[in-house]
């Protein structure tokens, strides 16, 4: 038998075990090629320049390479260990280590670059769909075209050729370091076979659960007023990260074994075949795979969390735009407003107008702050707030000695939460006007020009407003003191009004806003973020799912002898599959549930920085991630079914 014939025979024999590896490799190449193609697409100029996305796209491509490289090296390590006996046999019949390495390299070359070519073709085929998705998310009115990018191909070939070089280096080091005897022991020694639960494991297991719960608790109070300085806030974040990651490692190292041992003791040793095939195996397999499971769980939680936060921002884009621009159009100059209204009247567009006089005043709020804000470079006891008359708000009516706030940003409320009542002071140039604070309302009444920074708007009585107007502090006033809101009555005429808005010759230097454009700007920014995070999250999902699947392939081959014995004892294929299904629920379910739990508490602690809606975006992301992750559990059960069938 020639070397070439041997290579082809080995490739054919091992292809049945490599099919998911080939799929994952092709999928990774396809994603990378499609992603890089976007960077060289002229239609992407508006995305990369208009919303500063070029740096984000390049950073994402680097992270994509890191994820794929880590996966391919890990998968290659699993497969070469599975072939350790075969490598040992080659050396026993007289082959040198160099020749064995050349055989492995030739097989890898055919498999790797064949998958690379297939991945590039798939990436080219889906590049138009990927571009369409990005345009849809960012709201860009562009036509996606199917075009082959030579620079993208060159970049893809360079990157994956370098990865192939790393794989060859890993294989060379493996073959060089192993003796013939050790090659026959690699598989049997790769998993922890200890069956006794020690006291140390019990302690580690309890510490793991406690550490995770402590991290969750601190995250739940992170922005609740307990940590009032930037230094303590930073320390708390580092503590949460360390506590949860270390707790996750301890959970796999000891908690799973400890908890399942309690279940086994509760059964008083009367374990059904389903329990033997599920609980007993998982107790010790997860311990030996604690590090890789911790990495998978942590990055899964990170991917789900980031995708949830980006979707929260995207989902809340319209509501955020309404907060910044409460009317369809807001202007800050009466003359400019008159020009715009003339244009609307000339085109028969009906509208409603709201005019609100706005003053800026220093407001002393120490008495109504829940907790003082430490470690900041400004006086948190005094807010510079816009002030309006209560007659401008139909739903609010205050007495001369009363004041109310409205439109306080959710994020700011977490840092500087307000009491329901108390005393405040409105400070003019010379006078101080004491007021009774009577509560906070939710309406946003003026544009972001007056209420930037997320601080609230103060509503006072006409009498108080006049007193403040007579004692105005000119140093803190804006160039404009009037908010003009224009709402189009017929939504079908809104786009025409936007065109007129841009055609109107505004003369004032103060800003004018269109709500629909603010919303589009928000969607462009958050849409690109969601696209990039989703791309990276999908890549990690596929690679981590494949890693868990490969581990199950290894375990099934190692346990094949046990299945043969059980089949000879009379257990049916269905009996064994019941235990296997339970096993896969735990093998894939535990990392998934921990990742979901980590992401939930992370998102819950700081979601208000990103938008106005928590549950719908987060639940949708979690359900989608769970559905995709479950595919690999199903594939694992099908592989076990094949192994059990071949056990007799």
- State the distance separating the first and last CA atoms: 31 Å
Can you give the helix content as a percent range? 55-70%
Task: Give the biggest sheet.
Answer: 6 strands, mixed, barrel
Average pLDDT works out at: 86
Biggest β-sheet: strands ordered side by side in the sheet? 3-4-8-5-7-6
Q: Determine Rg (CA atoms, Å).
A: 32 Å
Molecular shape: elongated
**Total beta strands:** 10
* Relative strand content: 5-15%
Low-confidence stretches: 189-194
Give structural notes:
By secondary structure, the protein is of the alpha+beta class. Among the domains are: 1-189, no CATH class; 351-488. 65% of the residues lie in helices and 9% in strands. The chain is built from 21 helices and 10 strands. The strands form 2 sheets. Strands 3-4-8-5-7-6 form a 6-stranded mixed beta barrel. It has a 4-stranded antiparallel β-sheet with strand order 2-9-1-10. α1 runs antiparallel to α18 and α10 packs across α12 (290-315). The chain is elongated.
């Amino acid at each position: 038998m020639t070397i070439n014939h041997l290579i082809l025979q080995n490739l054919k024999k091992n292809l049945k075990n490599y099919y998911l590896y080939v799929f994952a490799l092709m999928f990774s190449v396809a994603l990378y090629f499609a992603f890089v193609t976007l960077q060289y697409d002229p239609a992407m100029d508006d995305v990369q320049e208009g919303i500063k996305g070029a740096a984000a796209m390049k950073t994402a491509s680097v992270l994509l390479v890191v994820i794929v490289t880590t996966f391919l090296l890990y998968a290659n390590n699993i497969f070469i260990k599975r072939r350790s006996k075969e490598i040992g046999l080659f050396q026993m019949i007289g082959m040198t280590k160099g020749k064995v390495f050349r055989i492995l390299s030739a097989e890898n070359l055919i498999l790797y670059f064949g998958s690379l070519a297939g991945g590039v073709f798939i990436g080219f085929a889906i590049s138009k769909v990927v571009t369409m998705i990005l345009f849809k998310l960012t709201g860009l009115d562009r036509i996606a075209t199917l075009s082959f990018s030579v620079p993208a191909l060159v970049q893809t070939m360079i990157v994956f050729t370098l990865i192939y070089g790393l794989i060859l280096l890993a294989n060379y080091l493996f073959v060089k370091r192993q003796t013939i005897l050790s090659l026959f022991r690699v598989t049997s020694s790769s998993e922890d076979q200890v069956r006794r639960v020690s006291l140390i494991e019990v302690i580690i297991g309890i510490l793991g659960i406690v550490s995770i719960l402590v991290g969750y608790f601190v995250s739940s109070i992170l922005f609740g007023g307990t940590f009032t300085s930037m230094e303590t806030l930073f320390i708390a974040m580092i503590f949460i990260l360390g506590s949860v990651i270390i707790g996750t490692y301890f959970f796999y190292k000891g908690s799973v074994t400890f908890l399942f041992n309690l279940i086994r003791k509760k059964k008083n040793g009367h374990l059904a075949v389903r329990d033997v095939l599920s609980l007993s195996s998982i107790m010790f397999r997860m311990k030996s795979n604690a590090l890789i499971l911790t990495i998978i769980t942590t990055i899964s939680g990170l991917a789900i969390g980031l995708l949830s936060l980006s979707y929260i921002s995207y989902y809340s884009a319209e509501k955020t735009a309404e907060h910044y621009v409460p009317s369809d159009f807001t202007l800050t100059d009466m003359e400019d407003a008159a020009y715009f209204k003339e244009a609307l009247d000339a085109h028969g567009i009906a509208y409603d107008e709201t005019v609100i006089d706005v003053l800026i005043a220093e407001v002393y709020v120490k008495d109504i702050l829940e907790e003082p804000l430490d470690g900041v470079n400004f006086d948190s006891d005094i807010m510079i707030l816009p002030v309006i008359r209560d007659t401008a708000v139909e739903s609010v009516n205050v007495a001369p000695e009363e004041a109310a706030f409205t439109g306080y940003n959710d994020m700011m409320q977490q840092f500087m939460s307000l009491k329901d009542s108390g005393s405040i002071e409105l400070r003019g140039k010379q006078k101080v006007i004491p007021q009774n604070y009577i509560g906070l309302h939710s309406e946003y009444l003026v544009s972001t020009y007056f209420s930037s920074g997320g601080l609230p708007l103060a509503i006072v009585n006409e009498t108080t407003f006049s007193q403040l107007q007579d004692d105005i502090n000119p140093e803190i006033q804006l160039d404009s003191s009037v908010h003009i809101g224009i709402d189009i009555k017929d939504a079908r005429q809104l786009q025409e009004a936007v065109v007129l808005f841009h055609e109107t010759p505004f003369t004032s230097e103060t800003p004018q806003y269109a709500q629909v454009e603010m919303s589009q700007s928000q969607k462009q920014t958050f849409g690109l973020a969601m696209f990039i995070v989703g791309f990276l999250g999908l890549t990690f999902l596929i690679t981590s799912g494949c890693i868990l699947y490969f581990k199950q392939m290894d375990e099934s081959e190692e346990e094949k002898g046990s299945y043969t014995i059980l089949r000879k004892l009379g257990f049916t294929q269905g009996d064994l599959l019941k235990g296997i299904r339970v096993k896969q629920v735990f093998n894939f379910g535990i990392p998934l549930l921990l990742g979901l739990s980590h992401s939930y508490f992370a998102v819950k602690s700081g979601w208000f920085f990103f938008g106005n809606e928590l549950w719908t975006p987060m639940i949708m992301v979690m359900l989608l991630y769970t559905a995709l992750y479950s595919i690999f559990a199903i594939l694992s059960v099908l592989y076990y079914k094949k192994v059990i069938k071949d056990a007799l």
